[in-house]
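ok so heres the complex, two chains, lmk if somethin looks off
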Amino acid sequence: MSLLEQQNLAKSLGISLTKEKPKKEEHVLPPLPNANKYEKIRVRFAPNPDFAIHLGNARAAILNDEYAKIYHGIFILRFEDTSPSVKPPMLEAYDAIREDLKWLGVNWHEEYIQSERLPIYYDYAEKLLEIGGAYICTCPPEEFRKLVNSSKPCPCRDLPIEKQLKRWEGMMDGSIKKGGAVMRIKTDLNHPNPAIREWPAMRIDTKPHPLQGQKYRVWPLYNFACGIDDHLMGITHILRGKEHEVNTQRQIYLYKYFKWEYPEVIHYGRLKIEGTILSKSKMRQGIEMGLFKDWEDPRLGTIAALRRRGFLPETIRRLILEVGVKPSEATISWDNIEAINRKLLDPITKRFVFIPNPIKLEIQGLTKEFEARIPLHPDRPELGNVTYKVGPSNNTIFVPLRDISGIKVGTIFRLMNLFNVELLSPSICVYIGESIEEIRRINAPIIQWLPYGIELSIVMHDGSTIDGIVDRNILNENLPNVFQFYRFGFVKIYKEDGKIKGYYTHD
RNA sequence: GCUCCGGUCGUAUAGUCCGGUCAAGUAUACUGGCCUUUCGAGCCAGUGACCCGGGUUCAAAUCCCGGCCGGAGCACCA
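and the predicted structre for the whole thing:
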């Protein structure tokens, strides 16, 4: 049925086709709890600069950014780099993260680096020791665990405050060696969850820090630094992954001692992408083992890799908003990400012809010159065309090996935007006419071709490459940029050392 | 093992708090058709889900209980 026929049928049935369709679901975030309780909403994104951020991290950044924008609040970027030896920060990661955030359209109003704030944590640690909210524990970890698992206090817990402060001094001045002592927060020894009992807040770490060198030997642990900072920075709402649920409970003890009010917390479930690694440590490991080139490797789920492959920041934001803040786990499929990106890319990308694995094809039977006009965008004629001439004296073109090898000798096919030919041998065809209707009627293939072009190597998702030739007019475009290659897919093109290089986006 | 948290089409999500308008909406994927000198986009149609079992109720995706399944945490990591 033609469109007109469909419309007529619809009319006769009393159905209106032009009636506005249900509006596309704009994914809107649920309101923040008790938002009106606070004068100014303050949220934070607190990455560990031990690697580039990936989609899972970006989720936290975008969610917080969205809320900051909705409520005209303040977004704080806080680098949590207080573990010199277990999660050693990478110097390049600080700027890489800033760059990724900017690219994602995340604006931050304040920025802090925890490793620059150690005196603050020391100050609160001492206060806590003075009011008896914490103690310095010198028990071997094994023994301590045994005690705490059976809800018993360790011998250090009830030592007098003077003794605690003395030990603290020992941690600070070096008379207690690494591993010799740790500051613990006094909690409820009978708390049903042993993981919450008597959690550690400060430990000795002597490994040089990329920003601080060996200036400090006592470092706060996550819950202490994070808990103190969230209060000091006036955070009103914390959005964090489910893996932090017990940390939230742990930190509440801290807030009770200092008589602070704990921020509102929203825990969301983990984010996975089918078939893609989203773990910083695994990605790091893979790079060390030589499996991946760097953190921009197309096989990884880092923001840098997605950017290099041609995903748009808007795609990532839409995806994150679609997934929302549910506490259940979500496994995102590439289909969905690509569909969002394709929809955004389609109207704005120019089309070019690319011939993967080009093979020469001679055209016989030409008596005049033909000019092919290939539009830069089929739906936007105002963008113009590129033109190629084919005639008796220039009758050799390149076609994709894959397409031509699928065509049997003696069958008819069409050279896109040019004319129809019949294959005489794997490398020779003959002109037989111009009718596109004829091709449609017999459902013959239409393949792209090029009389000449420039070499281009495209890196695919699995790290492999496809070589071919591309329309040289692409050199007149601003690079890097994403294009759609006819019958091939979207590709992001870069200029590297005078040559162009491509990264496959998706089909 | 212990402590938490979850389970709606293949995937993601709406609905769950405040039971009825949900014989469950949307996107994507898939199938068919239309359009089109791209195997892209667009348009039309179709297939497809409330984990299971009890209970409460006139009425349950929504409330209660049990089971099953899944996830997270149980670091001197973040």
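quick notes: The CA atoms of residues 184 and 200 of chain A lie 4 Å apart. thats all i got rn
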